[in-house]
Amino acid sequence: MLAGSASNDLSSLPIMINPERDLRTVEAMVVDLKPYLLSNVLYWQLSDSRPGYPLPRGTLGGMFLRDQRLEAIYDDLSMEQRERLEYARSGMRAELAHWVVQAEMKVQLEVKARIRGWRIFLSECEDNPRRYQDEYPTQVGSRTIIQLFDERLPRAVRGRGLMTQVSYLDGQLLRISTREGFVWDERLQSAFPETPYWWLYVLPVPEDQRIDPDDVR
Prior knowledge:
Number of strands: 2
Number of helices: 10
Shape: globular
Strand order of the largest sheet: 1-2
Structural class: mainly alpha
Largest sheet: 2 strands, antiparallel
């Protein structure tokens, strides 16, 4: 799999939703948030990961993505799970507000890493879209995480040339894709509407199946 780091962190997107695993992962990341933000690593080994119930390595973007996934299925969570999620969210907000400079630095590091991986994947897709179609729903998690950063911690990503690079890659994706149904589990769709998450509604295809990019957005 290209952009291999994405498969090891919180952006890894299994086809089937596992609310309890998502919730435990968010909880573990919140517990570790202070030492993570003060560290010099991007992919953090969560302290609550243990034999028999391993957790993915954590990043801020992965935590935001899992939180958004849980929001989409909030009504399906038990009362106990909702209480745990709200408690984790409270801790998340508090730590990010306290360590805002460190959080913004970590976001910039993560966005740069995700741009690199996304660029490689799109180049491979352009050369052989059929081969990499199956990977697209997982790899597109990186583009979605960048959007979540822009929504939740915009100061970290704007005005630094990062979104200019993202816009260029958006254009590349538009040129090699066609409209598609929502590429993730349909239960997540309410939390990821087509505007602004249009890349979750397209799929890279061979040249003879592509459509006018203006018809996508």
